[in-house]
Amino acid sequence: MTVNQKPDTFNGSKHWPGLIKAYRSFLPISDKTPIITLQEGSTPLIPVDSISRLIGKKVKVYIKYDGLNPTGSFKDRGMTMAISKAKEQSCKAVICASTGNTSASAAAYAKRGGMKAFVLIPEGYVAQGKLAQALVYGAEVLSIKGNFDKALEIVQKVSDNFPVTLVNSVNPYRLQGQKTAAFEIIDSLGESPDFLCIPVGNAGNITAYWMGFNEYLKASKSTKVPKMMGFQAKGSAPIVNKKIIKDPQTIATAIRIGNPVNWEKALKVKEESNGEFFEVSDEEIINAYKILGQKEGIFCEPASAASIAGLIKIKERIPEESNIVCVLTGNGLKDPDCAIKNNDAIFHTNLDPSLDSVIKTMGL
Ligand code: AN7
């Protein structure tokens, strides 16, 4: 199986129109829906040979680099749908709880659609890049002295009682948009992979991918579906441990979630796909994060590296010659603090600004 080049024309034009127009016939869109888009989607599927070699057994590993979406995460796939439908329903304001990426995406798309965006975030646990985005896109940011799960509880009540649309993944349009990532993988490979490895927080994305793989199977675009392998961060792994985590902890703040809203759906995905859930430690996450950076030139945020960390952890279970796609959900630039603290670079500082000192330091 080889990766097909994306066609360089789309409906006769060289311009990718965004995922709603590209996959319109698979989405709940009518002629009346105003399409609010930043031309999200069409992200690269990149072979990562150093990871393939690490797994061995002639497997082929690809990453779906969804950190290359307009606001740097997969959330844009769901947000173009959620905000377009909110606009269709004449909504004036949206709200979400977020570990960071949803707030950045909601803010960007709401503003593009001429709406207000309110975002609730857990104080002290949102990576700097994500907070910067929400502020620059002009969201109203409400930072609470509590975790994501508490924030979600509050925004659900706000949207139940006030004319503000909830754009967390309980909004069904979010998953509709996110399922297009599965379409793109099959469009690139010409077939479904054997395994999909994906980080799990609220378990919306794993649910959306499973929907996408099944819809493409039904449309005869593929002949099989993958085993869905979900990875949670140790310390924030309620599904793996079969219990709500009151005070979730992990370096991967994006998936620092103790009571996933799509928990039941995730269990169904696991069962139907013959998949499995595992937890990966912060150490395993950072190891995968560094391999991607140093060996592949790919920079993702720590939560995303959980998919690669998970694959490495379960490599004994992977059969020979499997095709595996690992989803990299968010861009590395989202979390510069993590990057600065966790790398093996040689970084010389305080040098004299002279040719001599530079040459000497370089060992030439
Ligand atoms: C990079 O932004 O929940 O399992 O509020 O940002 O669908 O929740 C983020 C989740 C994986 C988990 N990777 O996806 C939020 C939020 C990244 C993420 C997940 C998130 P789900």
Descriptive report:
The chain has 15 helices and ten strands. The chain is α/β, with parallel strands linked by helices and 364 residues long. A six-stranded mixed β-sheet has the order 1-2-10-7-8-9, with helices on both faces. The longest helix is centred in the middle third of the chain and has 15 residues. Strand 3, helix 4 and strand 4 form a beta-alpha-beta unit. The site of ligand AN7 has 21 residues, from helix 4, helix 9 and helix 13.
Pick out its properties:
364 residues, alpha/beta, 15 helices, globular, binds ligand AN7
* Strand order of the biggest β-sheet: 1-2-10-7-8-9
Q: In angstroms, what separates the terminal alpha carbons? A: 46 Å
N-to-C SSE series?
HEHEHEHEHEHEHHEHEHHEHHEHH
The biggest beta sheet reads: 6 strands, mixed
Strand-residue fraction?
A: 5-15%
Question: Number of helix segments?
Answer: 15
Please tell me the overall pLDDT. Answer: 96
Bound molecules: ligand AN7
Helix amount: 40-55%
**Content-based structural category:** alpha/beta
Shape category: globular
Strands, count = 10
pLDDT < 50 stretches: none
Radius of gyration: 20 Å
